[in-house]
């Protein structure tokens, strides 16, 4: 039995790429091709179809039949986006893992270069490449893919709050043991993906290489005003939309010096103010459009 178990472990790939998808037929093929075109070949692609009603199943089954590295799972019912992300991660059997959204693409060297970096830098828990949205430019400040590589965990967490930005670091290549230890995986609140990165930053350094690229799709709910309504469970969420994120950040920083904790708390309060302003501006704009529509009818 020990020999058989050892042989089984030796046959496992080194990297798992998890691709959660729901009704992604229009963009899915390009995302899968981007993964299968990687110069690093020793990986498994796990696609979790969240009970799609379009051609997603047909596309995935075709790729799974053509390439043994593709593992396709169709959920019998929609388990929600957050749990679908958790499902592909928990299905991984490898020491390294990354998420790939169904509308994202990467340069062919993404896995190879980041794997090589993590293999030779044991104090880093994640590594990625310059990130942009489709049709946009590379801006580490706006995309949130700046390296968090200070020797101080408190400074790494505090430095994440550089302003309102996307979460480019969320689509890094991770050490799966550290990622799996995050208590907030699968949580459903505004900024939960940021909390995952904050937790990782408290456990180790996060790298951004100066070569290659990642292009994130624009089809996700986070790129629309609907993101606030999705996580609005009570009237408190209207005025303090990031309150759950702030609570998690406070817990993550429990061992930090008071100065860093105050800095993190102030950043969370500032983000709540920005989010409230965005919601009010959006409501005023929708009201204005409604008035214009009525006046022109």
UniProtKB/TrEMBL annotation:
A GO molecular-function annotation: hexosyltransferase activity
Protein name (Swiss-Prot/TrEMBL): Glycosyl transferase
InterPro entries tied to this protein: Glyco_trans_2-like, Nucleotide-diphossugar_trans
Domain Glycosyltransferase 2-like: from-to ranges: 16-142
Ranges in a coiled coil: none
Keyword set, alphabetical order: Transferase
């Amino acid at each position: 039995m020990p020999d058989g178990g050892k042989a089984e472990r030796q046959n496992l790939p080194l990297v798992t790429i998890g691709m959660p998808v729901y009704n992604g037929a229009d963009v899915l093929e390009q995302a899968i091709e981007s993964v299968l075109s990687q110069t690093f070949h020793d990986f498994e692609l796990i696609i979790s179809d969240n009970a799609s009603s379009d051609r997603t199943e047909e596309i995935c089954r075709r790729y799974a039949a053509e390439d043994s590295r593709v593992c396709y799972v169709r959920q019998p019912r929609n388990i929600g986006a957050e749990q679908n992300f958790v499902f592909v991660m928990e299905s991984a059997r490898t020491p390294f893992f990354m998420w790939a959204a169904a509308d994202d693409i990467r340069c062919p060297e993404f896995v190879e270069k980041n794997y090589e970096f993590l293999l030779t830098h044991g104090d880093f828990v994640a590594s990625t490449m310059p990130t942009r949205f489709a049709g946009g430019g590379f801006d580490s400040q706006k995309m949130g893919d700046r390296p968090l590589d200070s020797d101080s965990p408190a400074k790494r967490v505090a430095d994440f709050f550089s302003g309102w930005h996307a979460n480019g670091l969320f689509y890094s290549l991770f050490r799966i043991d550290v990622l799996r230890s995050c208590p907030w995986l699968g949580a459903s609140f505004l900024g939960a993906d940021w909390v995952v990165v904050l937790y990782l930053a408290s456990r180790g350094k996060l790298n951004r290489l100066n070569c290659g690229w990642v292009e994130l799709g624009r089809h996700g709910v986070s790129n629309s005003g609907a993101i606030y309504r999705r996580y609005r469970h009570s009237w408190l969420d209207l005025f303090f939309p990031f309150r759950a994120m702030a609570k998690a950040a406070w817990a993550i920083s429990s061992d930090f010096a008071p100065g860093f904790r105050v800095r993190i708390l102030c950043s969370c309060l500032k983000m709540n103010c920005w989010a409230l302003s965005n919601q009010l501006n959006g409501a005023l704009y929708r009201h204005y459009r409604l008035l214009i529509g009525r006046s022109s009818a």
